[in-house]
């Protein structure tokens, strides 16, 4: 096993890309992030672990804007996240410049996933150690979207999903309790999902 | 023959630009908006080569937006003006943009400001400025009637005086103008001054 995880470009005999799987491990260690889609709203929530006393917690941004109509939350290596988010922000503006239209949620998700995939098929690099939840409304549309990407570069749309620490428990909770909601009800669902794995009072 | 001018008033900055898109002796359209809203509190009034004008100002606009997403706060007017000048300067000795710009903005801390940026990357912070053949007339009118701390009504009156002067004294005077204003409430269109409307299309 150990022989097949040194370089990312090498498959193992049973078809694994170990570096990608190890990246998913890094994601599993990151803070929990949950996304829930409603009929007229889409909600992102992240767990905020208790921070060091001397740290200015306001400088730690876990949900970011990629454009006026798109937001992103992620779990995993935050330093990798900064790089990916920067590239996505540039792409959002570049798209606006070349086609005079804002990106759709699917377009920017495909771009980020494509970027993550590139780093699973190049020499001398490692994959990005993060999974992202991307939410927004397509331009000129009132239909909300929620997408998820992971270090392998796959992406798909979800009604509700979670990533990071305890994401399996959160996803189980969402599968049991999800129904089409709107407005405040969707927000409450997202909060209740996070409360499954976080302690009250540590927000 | 493009006319762009503007000045700073009491808590606001106003810019006016003609709205003709001209190619040699043909007027393509007479309702071309040459004052771009750069962000919520900035206006770029640009004149010059029309391809360069659109290309360059859109490029600046997207980079200003990117800065805001990266840093969580908007650029100041001064920073945006210096960035714009820098881009013109970098391109100058390779592939120059033939665009003259009046950048008007409002910052909470410093109030309204106006920057004169010409196509060879001159940058001046000014109270009043103008580009084009119209500048011979508008600058003279502004020199005569401008004083600091004008109200919006006084300012629009002066803008109208300048437009009147351009219309009556410039041989190929553009017929229509657009006026935009920026103050603490943001950048917005104030009015159009049209003396020639596009002919209505006759129904078949």
Write structural notes for this entry:
- The complex is a heterodimer of chains A (203) and B (204).
- With 203 residues, chain A is of the alpha+beta class.
- Chain A has one domain (18-45, 62-195): Aminohydrolase, N-terminal nucleophile (Ntn) domain (Glutamine Phosphoribosylpyrophosphate, subunit 1, domain 1, 4-Layer Sandwich).
- Helix content of chain A is 35%, strand content 21%.
- Chain A has a 5-stranded antiparallel sheet with strand order 3-4-5-6-7.
- In chain A, α2 (78-99) crosses α3 (105-118).
- Chain A is globular.
- Chain B is an alpha+beta fold and 204 residues long.
- Chain B has one domain: Aminohydrolase, N-terminal nucleophile (Ntn) domain (Glutamine Phosphoribosylpyrophosphate, subunit 1, domain 1, 4-Layer Sandwich).
- Chain B is 33% helix and 35% strand.
- Chain B has a 5-stranded antiparallel sheet with strand order 10-1-2-11-12, covered by helices on one side. A 5-stranded antiparallel sheet of chain B has the order 5-6-7-8-9, with helices on one face.
- Chain B is globular.
- The N and C termini of chain B lie far apart (36 Å).
- The chains are: A alpha+beta (203), B alpha+beta (204).
- At the A-B interface, β3 and α2 of A face α1 of B.
- Chain A: InterPro entries: Ntn_hydrolases_N, Proteasome_alpha, Proteasome_alpha-type, Proteasome_asu_N, Proteasome_sua/b.
- Chain A: It comes from Gossypium australe.
- Chain A: Residues 4-26 form the Proteasome alpha-type subunits domain.
- Chain A: The proteasome is a multicatalytic proteinase complex which is characterized by its ability to cleave peptides with Arg, Phe, Tyr, Leu, and Glu adjacent to the leaving group at neutral or slightly basic pH.
């Amino acid at each position: 096993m150990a022989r097949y995880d040194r370089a990312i470009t090498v498959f193992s005999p049973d078809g694994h890309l170990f570096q990608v799987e190890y990246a998913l491990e890094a994601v599993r260690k990151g803070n929990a992030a949950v996304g829930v889609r409603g009929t007229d709203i889409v909600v992102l929530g992240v767990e905020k672990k208790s921070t060091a006393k001397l740290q200015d917690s306001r400088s730690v941004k876990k949900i970011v804007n990629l454009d006026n109509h798109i937001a992103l939350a992620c779990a995993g290596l935050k330093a990798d996240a900064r790089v990916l988010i920067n590239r996505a922000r540039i792409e959002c503006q570049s798209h606006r410049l070349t086609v005079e239209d804002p990106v759709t949620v699917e377009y920017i998700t495909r771009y980020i996933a494509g970027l993550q995939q590139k780093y699973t098929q190049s020499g001398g690099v490692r994959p990005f150690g993060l999974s992202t939840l991307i939410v927004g409304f397509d331009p000129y549309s009132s239909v909300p979207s929620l997408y998820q990407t992971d270090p392998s570069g796959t992406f798909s749309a979800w009604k509700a999903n979670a990533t990071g620490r305890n994401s399996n428990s959160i996803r189980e909770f969402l599968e049991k309790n999800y129904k089409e909601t709107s407005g405040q009800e969707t927000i409450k669902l997202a909060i209740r999902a996070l409360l499954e794995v976080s302690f009250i009072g540590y927000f | 023959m493009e006319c762009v001018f503007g000045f700073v008033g009491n808590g606001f900055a106003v810019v006016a630009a003609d709205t003709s898109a001209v190619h040699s002796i043909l007027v393509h359209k007479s309702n071309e908006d040459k004052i771009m809203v750069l962000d919520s509190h900035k206006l770029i009034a640009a004149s010059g080569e029309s391809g360069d004008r659109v290309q360059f100002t859109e490029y600046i606009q997207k980079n200003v937006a990117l800065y805001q997403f990266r840093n969580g706060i908007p650029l100041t007017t001064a920073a945006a003006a210096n960035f714009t000048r820098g881009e013109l300067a970098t391109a100058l000795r390779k592939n120059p943009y033939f665009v003259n710009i009046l950048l008007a903005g409002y910052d909470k801390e410093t109030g309204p400001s106006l920057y004169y940026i010409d196509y060879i990357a001159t940058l001046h912070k000014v109270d009043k400025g103008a580009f084009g053949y119209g500048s011979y007339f508008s600058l003279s009118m502004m020199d005569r009637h401008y004083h600091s701390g004008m109200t919006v009504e006084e300012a629009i009156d002066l803008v109208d005086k300048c437009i009147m002067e351009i219309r009556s004294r410039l041989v190929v005077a553009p017929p229509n103008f657009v006026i935009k204003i920026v103050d603490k409430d943001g950048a917005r269109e104030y009015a159009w001054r049209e003396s020639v409307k596009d002919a209505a299309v006759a129904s078949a």
